[in-house]
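Today's session is about reading a structure prediction critically. Students often jump straight to the picture, but the first step is always the sequence itself: look for stretches that repeat, for charged clusters, for runs of hydrophobic residues. Only then move on to the predicted structure, which in these notes is written as discrete structure tokens rather than atom positions. Here is the chain we will use throughout the hour.
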Amino acid sequence: LQISGYLNLLANTIDNFTHGLAVAASFLVSKKVGFLTTMAILLHEIPHEVGDFAILLRAGFDRWSAAKMQLSTALGGILGACFAICAQSPKGAGETVAWILPFTSGGFLYIALVNVVPDLLEEKNPWNSLQQILLLCTGITVMVLLTLT
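Below is the predicted structure for this chain, in token form.
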């Protein structure tokens, strides 16, 4: 088995840990914020997990082992949620949310931009770059609209 498969599993576990932090912290804010965060993470996770499964197959895992390993990385999300709940301050959830949500949001933005910006800079076709920028702006607009409702 190639080391890339194991590195992907580690990265996926850390990613799922931050997702668990975000989901639990957002439910501490309100049910609405919690459900919106959960839906956003689910929409992100579906293609992400399919891609990770393909990486594991390419690294030499068989289908069953890859599926089991993918499911085991989900424990990172449960640990993240437990950590967020256990990290609540005696003064209330506000202090917990004050550091967890900015931490996870900043991490998600960093990862997204690190993946997108280099591709935009290497793109030779200006039309493709414009489409990617418009889709990125559309995603940001949808997030803003969801927070306003």
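Discussion point for the tutorial: The CA atoms of residues 11 and 61 lie 17 Å apart.
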